[in-house]
Amino acid sequence: MAGLPLSRIKVLDLTRARAGPTAVRQLADWGADVIKIEAPGADEELGGARHGFDFQNLHRNKRSMTLDLKSAEGKEIFFKLAATADVIVENYRANVKHRLGVDYEAVRKINPRIVYGSISGFGQDGPYAPRAGVDQIAQGMGGLMSITGLPGQGPVRVGVPIADLTAGMYLALGIMMALFDRDVTGEGRWVHTSLLEAQIAMLDFQATRWTVKGEIPPQAGNDHPTGIPTGVFPTTDGHINIAASGPGLYKRFCEAVGHPGLVDDAAYKTSALRSQNRKALNARIGEITKLKPSQYWIELLSEAGVPCGPIYTIDQTFADPQVQHLGMAVPVTHPTLGPQKLLRNAINMTRTPNHMRTPAPELGQHTGSVLKDLGYSESQIAALRAGKAI
């Protein structure tokens, strides 16, 4: 779409499931012309039903064409498309693209400007490279499940596919850097990451507790692992989050809730003591917060500059006035499904509307128009369909 930042970029999307489509969605949302290449008669078992909420949210703002990359005719069409593309994205197992003959080196021979993006489960080489990888496996291997959940609970997965999502975001960032570099060098690059790499990178300070200090982080439940007191506290009508770590915030919190004596209490006077006596301090705070409703504390603490907030179910999240103001649920009309609301991109940019342009395409909806743009005639397209190349 003209006027959007990536409107001059053409993307061939070979992805399925979630990590790859998440990367491509970042490009599609900001105007890239994305052609989603799917096998003829493909089901979307790994990405959910085509008319399901997940597929619709992952594949909006794209075109779809069917193409059999295992056939000579299909591969010929792919390379014609690749010759003028800017970006190709795939998330096959590491060896599959080479077996199909559509890997970076093969494409680079006909288009040295191509930026080729790949996501795999465990990396493009190494002992686990050939393995299939999915989000929960990466959460476990990447250490996340060992620090999620209540102390002593045993391993717990995060409630969203965090390895898939972050791998997709990292790849999109890498693709953008490669495109930026191409403007200077004239050459593309192979950009790749994996679910395992993304998950380990997202451990952030929990990982460096080990790499720098030799500490193995334990499960901390709803408490922040190092910032105390930060956690979930009871109220008369539910629970709220309060983050009052650090001397300044802790002092403001104690004064706001009417217990300034906690500031100089011998058991909690320093950050180290508050960490050492975390359970007792949390219990003291809980005895205070359980006397009033959630909204009372949120208003009081917000006025005092202490970070706090409600703990919502998803329906409550979308009913919140700030969330409604942000417009996170964006309407789009699907020709079969009718009006629906999908999640908008979280990036805001001046002079650029952040809206849904088109719903997710039907299987092969744009095959004919893409081939016509390549110069194929109606009879040639019909012959390709008859031969099941498309």
How would you portray this structure in words?
- This protein has 390 residues and is of the alpha/beta class.
- The chain folds into 2 domains: 10-202 and 327-386, Rossmann fold; 230-311, formyl-coa transferase, domain 3, CATH 3.30.1540.10.
- 41% of the residues lie in helices and 14% in strands.
- It has 19 helices and 11 strands.
- The strands form 3 sheets. The protein has a 6-stranded parallel sheet, sandwiched between helices.
- The longest helix is centred in the middle third of the chain and has 24 residues, at 162-185.
- The radius of gyration is 25 Å and the shape is elongated.
Strand content: 5-15%
Shape: elongated
> Based on helices, strands and strand pairing, what is the structural class?
alpha/beta
Roughly how much helix do the residues carry, as a percent range?
40-55%
Number of strands: 11
Order of helical and strand elements: EHEHEHEHHEHHHEHHEEHHHHHEHHEEHH
Overall radius of gyration: 25 Å
SS field, number of helical segments? 19
Indicate the CATH class of the largest domain: Alpha Beta
Give the N-to-C terminal Cα separation.
26 Å
CATH architecture label of the largest domain:
3-Layer(aba) Sandwich
The CATH topology label of the largest domain is Rossmann fold
Give the CATH H-level superfamily of the largest domain.
Answer: Crotonobetainyl-coa:carnitine coa-transferase, domain 1
* Main pleated-sheet profile: 6 strands, parallel
Number of self-contained structural domains: 2
